Here is the input.
Amino acid sequence: MSMRTSKLIKAPQELESAPDKKGSLKQNGLSVIKFYLHTQGDIGTCFLKEHLLLFVKSGIYTVRFRDQEYIVRSNEMVFINKSMLVEYEKSGEPGSEYMLDYMMFFLNEKLVEEFVQFAGLKPIYPVNGEVPVSIIKVNDLTLSYIESLKPYFDNPDDVRNALVRIKLMELLFHLVDSNDHFQYQLLQLSNHDRNSSIDKIMEENFTNPVSLNDLAYLSGRSLSTFKREFQAIYHTSPLKWIRNRRLDKAKKLLLETSLSATDVCFTTGFESVAHFSKVFKLRFGLPPSEFRQQFKRREEGLKE
Here is the structure.
């Protein structure tokens, strides 16, 4: 089988129309989506708008975040915090016709907070430091829970909304009872200030494919409040700020790395090379490639 690259997707919304989807359960921002496909290297990028628990029944699902790589194998789970841009690679096992069978459980902040309070979770050790991704070994109880979901996928329209919520809470109980590290991660999330500082949200997401609505949601504010507070802090609009931060990063990458102008374009969050070249020239006076060449000529002239 040949390797193919997928476009960037926003999850969970855009996964509902994925060709390899085999069923889904949904309730007010909560989603469970089941996938089944034959693959030997399906590569892509995904922006997570909700927290994700991904269970691999068979096959291999590789997640890359920053400079780390996490390999999720059969009967394992990975937990990934929301508002993150991750690269993935889907692979099947050679002896099984490269079949990959997996499920994605999307959890919003409200459910996580409700669970932590309902379960009465207490810190096992100090809750500090960022743990955005972790691999979870799945025990027999959790495997039985996964199997119990099959009838729901067979008749999703008959499943009450509240039952989806209860089943997700049940999953969280199974996982915290068997994994202290996962419990630590949930406590970390529940202790996170919902009204996150706008500067932190912007710095973490300016290269991600986020809308103003997404940024407002991530900061725990309404759209109108977010825009008003942003204007008071930065004295400009969020879109102009994002464009300038992307251009500043693009300039740095052009001068300090060997990435092509096209790679710099997509690395910094621009979705069109033509648009990137246009706004870069407006800001710095030359298109990206010419800007790099002029800098190199100036550097060589100084050495002579």
Observations:
- Residues 1-6 have pLDDT under 50 and may be disordered.
- The first strand starts at residue 4 and ends at 5.
